[in-house]
């Protein structure tokens, strides 16, 4: 039950974060959104880390994996929000949800065996992405290939982050696993923007970036909690943030895709869910 609650909680939180970020990135720009999200996340996680102190088992190897996990997450957010400025949530979120499949490819490259069914599912996901990048027809996405390329690059960054996180999530406290992306976001993105006077924030964007920052932390914590009880169940349910985002974007923002793009999105969503089950 905890795995189910954790996975569903992560899906809802990440869907909310993506929807809010898709709006705020069009108001103040992708770097500023990432900066404010990192600041909000650091305010939440920083006191917990300070209260817990340095873990006894924290070594140089763990620090390397934490740096990769945090760097991949921040890079993924920057690129994803650039995509959100140019395209629709209903197209971008399903591609971002392939982060789990990409993490599986990293595992395969590191020596883990990949079955025939998993390989075929990855090919189906690639086909779905190619369909989504096709001609927009009467859809609203004017440059689908650029949007899909950005979303795909973000998914690769997120996949690397997930793979690195898997190496340390069972060894370190939860707050320490969540901290790196927030700390790097503040040091690498927020601080340079502040020093150059380009850290923008408007009244309209303020609630959006606060909700995004809180939901990013909440989603990661919820997934990690669920994965401690059943990784497969938590992974299958958490990747459904893409489906939730697409439905909400259609209802709230009236986003529509061409038929071929819609077919590609459906193939990606089904493929990601199938791969999560196969990886179980």
Keywords, please?
single chain, 280 residues, mainly alpha, 12 helices, 0% strand
> Helical residue percent?
over 70%
How do the helices and strands follow one another from N- to C-terminus? HHHHHHHHHHHH
Mean pLDDT rating: 82
Q: How does the overall form come out from the CA principal axes?
A: globular
Main sheet overview? none
Question: What is the terminal-to-terminal distance?
Answer: 17 Å
Structure description:
By secondary structure, this protein is an all-alpha fold. The protein has one domain (2-279). It is 80% helix and 0% strand. The protein contains twelve helices and no strands. The protein has helices at 2-28, 30-52, 60-86, 89-96, 99-109, 116-132, 144-168, 174-195, 206-227, 231-238, 241-253, 259-279. It is globular. The two termini are 17 Å apart.
Describe how the helices and strands are arranged.
Elements: H1 2-28, H2 30-52, H3 60-86, H4 89-96, H5 99-109, H6 116-132, H7 144-168, H8 174-195, H9 206-227, H10 231-238, H11 241-253, H12 259-279
Helix pairs in contact: 1-2, 1-3, 1-9, 1-10, 1-11, 2-3, 2-8, 2-9, 3-7, 3-8, 4-7, 4-11, 4-12, 5-7, 6-12, 9-10, 10-12
